Amino acid sequence: MDTTIKLALIINDPDLPAALRVIAQKVQNQQRITFDEGVYLYEHAELGYLGVLANHIREQKHGDKTYFNRNFHLEPTNLCVYDCKFCSYSRLIKQKEEGWALTLDEMLDVVKKYDAEPVTEVHIVGGVLPQYDVAFYSALFTAIKKHRPELHVKALTPVEYHYIFKKAKIDYATGMKLMKDAGLESIPGGGAEIFHPDIRNVIAKDKCTGQQWLDIHEEWHKLGMRSNATMLYGHIEKFEHRVDHMEQLRELQDRTGGFQTFIPLKFRNQHNQMENVPEVSVIEDLRNYAIARIYLDNFDHIKAYWAMISRQTAQLSLNFGVDDIDGTLDDTTKIYSMAGAEEQNPAMSTKELVELIRQVKRKPIERDTLYNVVTDFTDVVFEGDVKPQFYKLPVIN
Ligand code: V47
Ligand code: SF4
After folding, report:
1. pLDDT on residue 389
2. What stretch or stretches form a coiled coil here (predicted)?
3. Are residues 260 and 314 in the same domain?
4. Do 36 and 165 fall into the same domain?
């Protein structure tokens, strides 16, 4: 059934609370929902209702298109000066023997390993270490671009930038301009966690504040550049904190338009200091994607990070507002397997990723980091495969 008809049925359903019908009407009219309505959805809306609204928005924006990219992760170090309670990945500097810290040449060797691969992006993410300063990262970005100019460098987060600029005694605007000139092309969404200080001061004390995270993205956007945003959810935060987080992103996006994608990250509770905090259910994951899609009306894309939530949940999420499932990353990322994610060895070939999307009757589109289409895989036949049939599920209700 057409998403517009499903939405109309909800709007006219006398058994639904008036507040939910008003929100559905707003979605139909492409009007923004308020902070209180966001909290109301988290508290009262059922999964089926949220799916209709979020899928309507998703299909209005992207139809059946589902984006992915071909990327690899470069993780310079797992040592870190900070001690975030949820982090399963980092080792404090005093636990040096359990960690690694690559030199610039070793990092370049990781990049060179992919020379023959059709990857379009390197995503650089890791811990914060004093020896990785402004000069070091500038040299790294420049060396990667010199070696492979067409490879998009998506690197670091405001956590690192705040730390290195403070040490160099330069302001954010100057620092981000230096990074851009060195070869940085976009900023991933990490380090956002939960902006609200009541939560941030407990789970991510000492690193950049929520406001500083937003200020660094704003300076980056002012240079005409793009970035992503994440939210670490499903731990000690309340629904109000999630909506507050998205409200601050929505407000900045209104001013700059520089965000491309919102990526909700499900808190995983293994091998970290929050092992006693239970993980939320898959239903809560899907509700969260859907509410993000409804709330963030000025974000083009909502991404499900398949390496974190499992392939099956990633497939389901495509009916709950998600239109992007990240990349064909190699097993170079250890962040999530260490935290207890289902994917212990998160590698998926392009063919597997395409099949994953086709199985749920969506159209797989390979994109580059800035969402330019690289290849439309809708009708591509892989060697040895039978031509895929693309069809919509029959209407039964
Ligand atoms: O900021 C750390 C999260 C983030 C845990 O922009 C955890 O395309 C859950 O931001 N449970 C870094 N999450 C990764 C990141 C990212 C990933 C994929 C794509 C993009 C993008 C960005 O990982 C951290 C933190 O929020 N994280 N530990 C954990 N136990
Ligand atoms: Fe360090 Fe990032 Fe882990 Fe926090 S989340 S301890 S900043 S690596």
Report:
1. 44
2. none
3. yes
4. no
213: CA distance to ligand 1 center in Å?
14
What pLDDT sits at residue 361?
Answer: 94
Cα distance between the two ends of the chain: 7
275-333 tens-digit pLDDT: 999 999 999 999 999 999 999 999 999 999 988 888 999 999 999 999 999 887 554 44
CATH number of the structural domain spanning residue 316 = 3.20.20.70
- Residue 383 is predicted with a pLDDT of 72
User: Is residue 89 within 6 Å of ligand 2 at its C-beta?
Assistant: yes
Q: Which residue matches tokens 């359990």?
A: 98
* Closest ligand 1 atom to 87 CA: 28
Q: At what angle do helices 158-168 and 172-182 cross, to 10 degrees?
A: 110
Is 87 a known ligand-binding residue? yes
Q: Is the CB of 35 under 6 A from ligand 2?
A: no
When divided into structural domains, the chain yields a total of 2
CA gap 99, 334 in Å, rounded: 12
Helix (H, G, I), strand (E, B) or coil at 377: coil
pLDDT in tens, 66-78: 999 999 999 999 8
Mutate to test the pocket of ligand 2, among 80, 267, 338 (most ligand atoms within 8 A of CB): 80
Residue 72 shares a structural domain with residue 191: yes
Pocket of ligand 1 (CB under 6 A): 86-88, 125, 188-191, 193, 228, 230, 232, 263, 265, 267-268, 272, 305, 326, 335, 339
